[in-house]
Amino acid sequence: MLHTETDLDKLTAQSIDTVRRWLRVSTSMTTAKNPAAERLSAVLSDENGLDFTVGFVDRVVRTDDVHAAADALTEVGKLAPETMSYLDRAQIKAGAALAKIAPQVVVPAARTRLRQMVGHMVVDARDKQFGKTVAALTADGHRLNINLLGEAVLGDGEADNHLEQTHRLLARDDVDYVSVKVSSVASQISMWAFDETVDYVVERLRPLYSQAAKAPTGAKFVNLDMEEYQDLELTIAVFTRLLSEPEFKELEAGIVIQAYQPDALGAVQRLSEFSARRVENGGVGVKVRLVKGANLAMETVHAEIAGWPATTCDSKQSTDANYKRVLHWLFTPERMKGLRIGVAGHNLFDIAFAHHLSVERSVTDRVEFEMLQGMASEQAAAVTEDVGDLLLYVPAVHPKEFDVAISYLVRRLEENSASENFMSGIFDLANGNDVFKREADRFTASVNQLESILETEGETAPAPNRHQNRSTETLGETVVPTQFFNEPDTDPSLPANQEWVRKIIAEATAPGYLDDRPNTPKIESTDELDEMIARGRAAAADWRALGAAGRAEILHRAADIFAARRGEFIAVEAAEVGKMPSQSDPEVSEAIDFIRYYALNSLELEKLEGAEFTPDEMVVITPPWNFPVAIPTGGTV
To answer: Where is the Proline dehydrogenase domain (predicted)?
Structure first.
């Protein structure tokens, strides 16, 4: 019988008491403070702090042209937070005043100062500097997870370079653990061809895993990271495919799962089963690094642009509860057979919760605690007295490529400044003060939410927020909307949609596909042309007689028919003009948008005093080959 019964109220009280003890210990420790971290915390505590810091990072550091950077510095300097030290603030103000006069001098100096301010968050990847940093960080017994920073690559050259640099890192004697993302080693990834993409990424990553496998057992570790929801299933598929190959039977490797996605528990359950099968077949297990997730803004923007539901939990408390839900389900000897977990994060209450739960469930030997390098070093030192040495996540970048660190830094800055995040009050957290009470209350609320979930849903994994399935969509009754909304594109990251488009392309590329479809009758003579024009002119009167409401209803019905026949449009475009689904699918959405937009606006025009609808009796549309659906539709309606 699985040991999953836990007194959550007792565990909550234990966790809060443990945090109190850690805070007492941290104040008495002689661990060297991090001036840069404290300076940055002070800046972010100001109401202008985030705008100032992000503006500085994004517009001054990132901009290549020193004159444009000087203009940005002049603007950003006006936001210099009052919480900065007198010297720092004076330097920023002086730099802002002189930037346009001497940009060649001021801008490089300002960039250097900013890098010093965030230097504790990103390590210099140059060999000599990197070696010194690694030696210093490992002196206390901690292991390091090195992540060579880089966002989704746009070309093969960039992907090759990132992969080559990761190979070089793993080959170093002082590096035994690296993280890499699918999106940073393979360019132009397409979820529309999921199986082919998995094959391609596996081929790209196999040499890196081979490099780790050839080292002595346990000497080298590769962690497969991820950032976007669209990469979730792809990353899991690549990970399990690679580790199912005989060459890697004895290689332990890791994967990241983000708890701010409701899908996290289901993903961990699958990985637990995969790990157990590996062990039963004579192999070694795997490791899951559980994080809360740090790409909320990006996920939100992507969802809004595409018209999809957000992939993340609906609140910070729900994310915290889901994080604990995964731990609560996983922490049993049976479910962690061959599986290790990295509990990653800086929330002391969550760390204490995970620690006490692992002790109660007798899985402490399968749990490793992880933190970001350079963040809250005093609290981290206190935590190690209970949980042992930490695994530090260390992002690295070459100074000449500092721009690739911008996105990472912005995410960290937003995380540290948002009041709902634990890190926003890390330097003010002390026993008995308001920040402690706030965080303890938030922690308790998340545990209470977990308890409520367990009572109503048990251990069943929650359904994902996105469940679009094009293969089940049919034409139903038309409901005329009261306001315009964009037609959602197809989400190619969902397995059901991947199977749907796979069948469409197989049909469209089959020999004779177009021959079997009904052809539009050709006009063979001027008499036939005259007859067609006459019919069109006559129909104009009937169209006008319908009235605005009648015309709008027909147009909305047409939009629904377009949506129901999306797959046919994609197939015909693929067969006739060679458009890929990634191009034709949004074009179908655009055509539907045209229809609905004009339908709704026709109702508004009807309200104008003196306005009278006079239909065009004949319109000739000559669209280009590359937009055979959207442009004819927009011109027609």
So the answer is: 132-424
For Cα atoms 138, 370, 334, give the angle at the middle one, nearest 5 degrees: 125
Only one residue has tokens 């030696």, namely 135
Half-sphere exposure (Cβ direction) of 117: Cα atoms closer than 13 Å: 26
Report the first-to-last Cα separation within the chain, whole angstroms: 65
In terms of domains, do 429 and 573 share one?
A: no
441 and 582 fall within a common domain: no
255 with 289: CB under 8 angstroms?
yes
Residue 275 to residue 236: CA distance in whole angstroms: 12
Q: Residue 18 sits in which domain range?
A: 8-32+183-364+400-456
On whether residue 227 sits in a domain, the answer given is yes
CATH number of the structural domain spanning residue 558: 3.40.605.10
Asked if residue 509 is part of any domain, the answer here is: yes
Per the domain annotation, does 263 fall within a domain? yes
- Please tell me the pTM assigned to this model: 0.89
User: Over pLDDT 70: what percentage of the chain?
Assistant: 97
SS3 state at 625: coil
Which of 449, 328, 327, 422 has the alpha carbon at shortest distance from 19? 422
Q: How many domains does the chain have?
A: 2
The identity of residue 441, as a single letter, is D
Residues 563 and 433 in one domain: no
What local confidence, expressed as pLDDT, does residue 1 receive?
41
Share of the chain residues as helix, strand and coil, in percent rounded to the nearest 5: 60, 10, 35
Determine phi and psi for 125, rounding to 5 degrees: -85, -5
Closest Cα partner for 462 from 343, 335, 329, 332?
329
Domain final residue, candidates 456, 484, 501 = 456
Find tokens 């017994």 and name the residue: 141
Is residue 416 one of the residues assigned to a domain? Answer: yes
Instruction: For residues 231 and 272, state if they share a domain.
Output: yes
Residue 604 has a pLDDT of 86
Rounded CA-CA distance 319/449 in Å is 10
State the Cα–Cα distance between residues 385 and 424, nearest whole angstrom: 24
- In whole angstroms, give the CA distance from residue 101 to residue 103: 6
Predicted local distance difference test score (pLDDT) of residue 30: 58
pLDDT tens-digit series, residues 352-394: 999 999 999 999 999 999 998 877 778 888 999 999 999 999 9
Specify the 3-state DSSP secondary structure of 578: coil
What would the mean pLDDT of 111-133 be, rounded to a whole number? 83
